[in-house]
Design brief:
Layout lengths: L5 E5 L1 E5 L2 E5 L2 H9 L3 E5 L5 H7 L2 E4 L25 H17 L3 E4 L1 H9 L4 E2 L5 E2 L5 E2 L8 E2 L2 E2 L7 E7 L4 H6 L2 E6 L4 E2 L6 E7 L4 E6 L4 E4 L15 H12 L2
Parallel strand pairs: 1-4, 1-5, 5-6, 6-17
Antiparallel strand pairs: 2-3, 7-14, 8-9, 10-11, 12-13, 12-15, 15-16, 16-17
Helix pairs in contact: 2-3, 3-4
């Protein structure tokens, strides 16, 4: 491909004082642009097939947790439905299906990775098991919590903060990140059962699946947000460069 590839990025639908609106973190578009692609936003729920025909590849962005019924889960606590959006779920699954049928590359970021796994037959770990805090206590706090252990960011909390990722040798991801890297983390859910055809390419030090790729299709999922800087982590364009290179190569 001689031209810059057109990369479609999914938006998030919300309700505010003005009614129904679509929002998208501008960091996605900037990351795609810096990696050599042309970013476009997807904000029409009835145009999935048209998007798949127009764009060269898809980025499924982060967002609220999907509704448990999407992966055969049960609603057991109020947090299971916190921020969930049926229309966002409908759109993400529909547009992913359109791009899969078109045989075009897909990158799932955080929630987007879980959407891919569920769409291909996998499951979601609704809540990552409680982790040990720096005080030696267990916690299952959902938001805004990170802990320091001996002056080092904790490996036991995925809600906020940097963590060490262990990259599988020989994977596409290793070519761009090496055998290990530091990445951010903003998720209390994770891959449960990995879908058939997907293989793990990165794990956190506690064993949580943090990235995967498909054995034969141009599909990649990462559980972290490489486009976003946070305390202890600087946004890294490597994942987006990897994806744009994959689109250019046609595989």
């Amino acid at each position: 491909m001689d031209r810059k590839p057109i990369i479609l990025i999914t938006a998030e639908d919300i309700n505010d004082a003005t009614g129904n609106v679509y929002v998208m973190n501008k960091e996605y578009g900037e990351a795609v642009r810096l990696a050599g692609g042309k970013p476009f936003g997807a904000a029409s729920f009835d145009n999935s097939a048209g998007y798949a025909e127009f764009a060269d590849a898809l980025v499924l962005s982060h967002g609220p947790n999907m509704h448990p019924f999407r992966y055969g889960g049960r609603v057991e606590r109020p947090e299971d439905l916190m921020g969930s959006s049926q229309t966002k779920d409908d759109f993400d699954f529909a547009i992913l299906k359109a791009f899969l049928e078109a045989g075009k590359p897909v990158l799932g970021i955080n929630r987007g990775a879980l959407i891919i796994n569920v769409a291909l037959g996998g499951s979601v770990a609704k809540a990552i098991p409680p982790r040990i805090t720096s005080e030696g206590q267990y916690t299952d706090k959902l938001f805004g919590a990170y802990n320091v252990l001996d002056g080092i960011w904790s490996n036991y909390n995925h809600s906020y903060g940097p963590q060490k990722m262990l990259i599988k040798k020989g994977s596409r991801l290793e070519k761009y990140l090496g055998e290990g890297c530091i990445a951010n983390t903003f998720h209390e859910q994770a891959v449960g059962q990995l879908a058939e055809g997907l293989r793990v390419t990165a794990r956190a030090e506690d064993g949580t699946i943090e990235a995967f790729e498909h054995e034969s299709l141009p599909i990649i999922g990462v559980q972290w947000n490489p486009e976003h800087s946070c305390e202890g982590y600087q946004a890294d364009p490597a994942v987006f460069r990897m994806f744009i290179d994959m689109v250019r190569e046609g595989k």
